[in-house]
């Protein structure tokens, strides 16, 4: 059986449409009758990743891959990149600008939130080139 | 359309008149749960997906869609009939005092007519108390969601089960009143509780059919519901009669009910949070807006808000599909009346708090029950189906025109995959085929 794969584009600095990709993913997962707690974890991760791409990224792509036992979220952008990944993984650490904070973002919880809500998270990033987030979620069989 | 008592208790909420229906697809596109189809010129509502929001009634340009309401002829047979009046009723008659309206309703043939003021205030106190409690206990996640609008409850249980824990577990005012009214009247007349027939006069399209939900026990408490527009003419008639015979004498006959400004305000969007002493509240109205907000809450936003009042009808309950008067005119009537009534409370806080501490007013419907009632009716698809759906979508390259009879291309593709529609119904595909034939000529 082939997995279901679909990609959504993320536009930089488009705060109005930010979250749309995650909502789309969420609706697809809902139509599959997946456990709603799992869906929420995936949606939160998708949203955090999407917001990162909107704020710091250039344009990006969110790809979801759905298989029977596993769901993969890939969020890649060609934006600022992360200088120090270890630091970025710490709760409360943020490089958000004043503008972002005024809009209520930039609490420094993005990556920590993704770490907590995903079963596997890997971050690849190069300063000035972009960031690639890879998250996996496992579907329990019981 | 009026229906007999038998059909009222059936599950069909929306009734289509296929003779009047022009197939314009307005309702198909407006339905938030994508429950309406028009395959083979035959409009149908997938009852299990219907959350009774009334949006289709609102957008139908020809009046081909109606909902069941109650026939008043049955009234004479009732031993003791009581009507519980939604405060929105007062907004439908400009310049008429609420107590005169209540008198006119009673004259239609009810033994008692009851106003909701006290119970709205009790609800507000209880809500405030729950919010304050939640600040220390954290028993429910922020933001709490108002349990008042029945469509919101169904929407959450059906489409956003993750948000069930956000619903504030307090019984809504109408349920509180119904419970008390039945008990008191049966005691007063010394008759059995089920000999008391409770009517609810309401603008709410969601309440006209006893729902599958017993959230806050509403069903078991109200026996029959009537849409305001269905008795509007009768009330106007009675009011005119009263004017002729002298309204003053009639007023003396019956004890006036105390009506508070909070009760009048209740029908407007924001009327609920206006009475709640927290700064971190929001009032959202309209179906689309409500869905957008629920989606955002599900993504983890609005954690800094304590309480959100949702009303799926535009402008709040004054925008209810079963009102007789336009929502903006109704809104004006309420706001002008408010200048007379003010927002002073009728009951002291301590009295309600004592009741609240003893567990009064807490809803006994569990989240699991709600999900069981609403959440299981959707047909679910597999990953293979998803791939097939994508393939069809690529083939159609559609514009969500709804000419096929489904609300959008994705839903159509889903129906095709599930064997409920045929691909050939897509007019874009057919047009391309014809173009090809013409080219090859």
Give an overview of the whole structure.
- The complex is a heterodimer of chains A (142) and B (441).
- Chain A has 142 residues and is an alpha+beta fold.
- Helices cover 35% and strands 27% of the residues of chain A.
- Chain A has a single domain, classed as Histidine kinase-like ATPase, C-terminal domain (Heat Shock Protein 90, 2-Layer Sandwich), CATH 3.30.565.
- In chain A, α1 runs antiparallel to α2 and α2 (36-56) packs antiparallel against α5 (110-117).
- Chain A is globular and about 45 Å long.
- Chain B has 441 residues and is of the alpha/beta class.
- Chain B has a four-stranded parallel β-sheet. Chain B has a three-stranded parallel β-sheet with strand order 9-13-12, with helices on one face. Chain B has a two-stranded parallel sheet with strand order 1-6.
- The longest helix of chain B has 21 residues, at 117-137.
- Chain B is globular, with a radius of gyration of 24 Å.
- Chains A and B meet through α1 and α2 of A and α12 and α16 of B.
Summarize the structure.
Chain A has helices at 20-31, 36-56, 85-88, 98-102, 110-117, and strands at residues 4-10, 60-66, 70-77, 120-126, 130-138.
């Amino acid at each position: 059986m082939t997995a279901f794969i679909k990609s959504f584009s993320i536009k930089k600095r488009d705060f109005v449409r930010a979250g749309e990709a995650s909502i789309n993913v969420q609706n697809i997962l809902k139509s599959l009758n997946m456990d709603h707690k799992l869906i929420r974890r995936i949606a939160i991760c998708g949203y955090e990743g999407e917001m990162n791409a909107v704020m710091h990224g250039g344009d990006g792509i969110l790809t979801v891959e759905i298989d029977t036992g596993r769901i993969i979220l890939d969020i890649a952008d060609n934006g600022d990149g992360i200088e120090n990944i270890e630091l970025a993984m710490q709760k409360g650490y943020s490089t958000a600008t004043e503008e972002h904070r005024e809009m209520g973002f930039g609490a420094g919880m993005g990556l920590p939130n993704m770490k907590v809500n995903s079963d596997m998270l890997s971050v690849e990033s190069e300063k000035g080139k972009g960031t690639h987030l890879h998250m996996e979620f496992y579907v329990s069989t019981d | 359309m009026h229906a007999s008592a038998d059909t009222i208790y059936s599950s069909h909420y929306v009734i289509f008149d296929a003779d009047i229906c022009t197939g314009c697809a307005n309702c198909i596109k407006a339905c938030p749960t994508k429950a309406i189809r028009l395959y083979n010129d035959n409009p149908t509502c997938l009852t299990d997906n219907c959350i009774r929001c009334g949006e289709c009634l609102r957008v139908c340009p020809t009046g081909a869609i109606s909902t069941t309401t109650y026939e008043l002829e049955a009234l004479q047979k009732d031993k003791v009939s009581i009507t519980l009046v939604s405060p929105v009723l007062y907004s439908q008659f400009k310049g008429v005092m609420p107590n005169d309206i209540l008198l006119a309703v009673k004259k239609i043939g009810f033994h008692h007519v009851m106003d909701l003021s006290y119970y709205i205030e009790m609800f507000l106190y209880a809500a405030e108390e729950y919010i304050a409690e939640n600040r220390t206990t954290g028993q429910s996640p922020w933001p709490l969601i108002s349990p008042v609008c029945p469509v919101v409850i169904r929407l959450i249980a059906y489409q956003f089960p993750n948000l069930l824990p956000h619903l504030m577990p307090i019984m809504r005012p109408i349920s509180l009143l119904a419970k008390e009214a039945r008990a008191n009247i049966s005691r007063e007349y010394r008759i059995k509780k089920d000999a008391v027939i409770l009517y609810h006069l309401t603008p709410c399209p969601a309440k006209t059919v006893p729902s599958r939900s017993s959230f806050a026990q509403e069903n078991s408490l109200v026996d029959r519901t009537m849409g305001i527009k269905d008795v509007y003419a009768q009330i106007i008639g009675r009011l005119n009669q009263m004017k002729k015979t002298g309204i003053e004498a009639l007023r003396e006959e019956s004890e006036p009910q105390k009506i508070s400004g909070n009760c009048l305000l209740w029908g407007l969007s924001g009327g609920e949070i206006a009475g709640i002493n927290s700064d971190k509240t929001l009032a959202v109205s309209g179906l689309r807006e409500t869905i957008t907000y629920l989606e955002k809450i599900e993504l983890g936003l609005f954690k800094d808000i304590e309480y959100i009042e949702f009303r799926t009808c535009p402008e709040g309950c004054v925008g209810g599909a079963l009102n007789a008067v336009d929502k903006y005119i109704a809104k004006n009537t309420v706001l002008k009346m408010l200048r007379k009534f003010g927002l002073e409370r009728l009951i002291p806080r301590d009295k309600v708090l004592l009741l609240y501490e003893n567990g009064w007013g807490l809803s006994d419907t569990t989240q699991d029950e709600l999900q069981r009632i609403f959440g299981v009716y959707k047909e679910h698809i597999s990953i293979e189906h998803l791939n097939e759906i994508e393939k069809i979508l690529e083939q159609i390259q559609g514009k969500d025109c709804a000419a096929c009879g489904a609300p959008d291309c994705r839903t159509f593709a889903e129906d095709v995959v599930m064997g409920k529609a045929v691909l050939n119904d897509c007019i874009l595909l057919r047009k391309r085929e014809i173009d090809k034939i013409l080219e090859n000529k």
